[in-house]
Design a protein that fits this description.
With about 400 residues, the chain is of the alpha/beta class. The chain folds into two domains: about 1-160 and about 340-390, Medium-chain alcohol dehydrogenases, catalytic domain (Quinone Oxidoreductase, Chain A, domain 1, Alpha-Beta Complex), CATH 3.90.180; about 165-335, Rossmann fold (3-Layer(aba) Sandwich). The protein is about 30% helix and about 20% strand. The chain has twelve helices and 14 strands. Strands 3, 4, 5, 6, 7 and 14 form a six-stranded antiparallel β-sheet that branches. The chain is globular, with a radius of gyration of 20 Å. The structure holds nicotinamide-adenine-dinucleotide and zinc ion (2 copies). Nicotinamide-adenine-dinucleotide binds near residues 191, 228, 254, 292 and 293.
Amino acid sequence: MRALTWQGRRKVSVETVPDPRIEKPNDAVIKVTSAAICGSDLHLYEVLGPFLSPGDVLGHEAMGVVEEVGAEAGDLRVGDRVVVPFNIACGTCWMCSRGLFAQCESTQVSDYGKGASLFGYTSLYGAVPGGQAEYLRVPHADFGPVKVPDEGPDERWLYLSDILPTAWQAFEYAEAPAGGTVAVFGLGPVGQLTARIALNAGCRVIGVDRVPERLALAASYGAETLDLDAVGDLPSAIFDLTGGRGADATIDAVGMEAHGSPVANVAIGAVGILPDALAKPLTDKFAIDRLAALHAAIKSVRRGGVVSVSGVYGGEVDPMPMMEIFDRGITMRFGQCHVRRWTDELQKLLAQDDDVLGVEHLATHRPSLEDARAAYEMFQRKSDGCIKVVLKP
Ligand SMILES: NC(=O)c1ccc[n+]([C@@H]2O[C@H](COP(=O)([O-])OP(=O)(O)OC[C@H]3O[C@@H](n4cnc5c(N)ncnc54)[C@H](O)[C@@H]3O)[C@@H](O)[C@H]2O)c1
Ligand SMILES: [Zn+2]
Ligand SMILES: [Zn+2]
């Protein structure tokens, strides 16, 4: 089959690779009909190279039609239309039974001390081939895949794989009071959906980014927006907009490739050119973070407020404003989304006739899988008004 493969830093290509097949009784194989590119793929493209091998198949936001099932794939049937959550969870272990699917103990990657395995996401997360491909092998198919109705365009359901539950969890974790103010840092696909969910729940939303069309899109749904490059001191601007108090909750939807920290920029560049043996421990333990968005989120929240972090971080040495966090009594919540925890609830919302969260109007580009290489470049550069790419295998 054809699949998008990682080949090196900022180098991906579509290659012919072996077809996936059933390897365990609870596997399924799906024929992929849509596979999105995510901000998380950009971390692979840019800084997580030491944990990838040339030829690894990327992609963790896929949906399609079940092509083949193992003998123990639960009630999944050939022909079912399914969305595949990006984390692979068994549904029954100690963590899963508490809804902590991103920490599933059956698929944790103990060699690296990491949580549940993920599709298309490095050896740190199990080196499981991803879904930017014609076919995808789905382990734990007796629990993971979300069956969706046969009707409706793929994009009505596709984002259940990742960004929609991620945005939902970010807002849940933010515990914003009704009518409260939520500041969303980063208006990529995750930030856009987070802003829409918060607005839908009756919150006031202040969205922050630097890309004009991303600011405009959030504004078109009712968010107030601040342009990172025009605003000067961001926390002061948010305090000014909130009567001097700060936002009730701030959400970091940026992660470790935030713009704004030249020192970390150099560190990231260095990790990118080191041989893997040296770069691996550096990438896992040290200085690849750029904390501009996280620091702004901490400094813009009100006393006693919540900072909810959906952006992905790695590394250990960057300074954190501990006194500020302590003195101002801030709650912080982090982590990978527990996708299956939210999908039932979200599916009901998506099934409504009107597209409440505008999911059918998020993708700006729908290239064929064969054009994935150029699509990665465009998405990273945010050129051509690119906000979300859905590949069509
Ligand atoms: N927790 C999870 O389970 C989970 C799931 C999906 C994605 N993510 C992460 O969420 C983050 C966002 O994903 P995305 O697909 O929307 O990515 P994206 O790269 O398209 O969006 C990030 C946005 O942040 C903006 N930005 C950069 N620096 C900023 C700053 N200092 N302040 C404000 N905005 C800034 C960029 O211009 C961009 O629009 C990524 O880190 C991704 O890895 C996490
Ligand atoms: Zn994703
Ligand atoms: Zn489990």
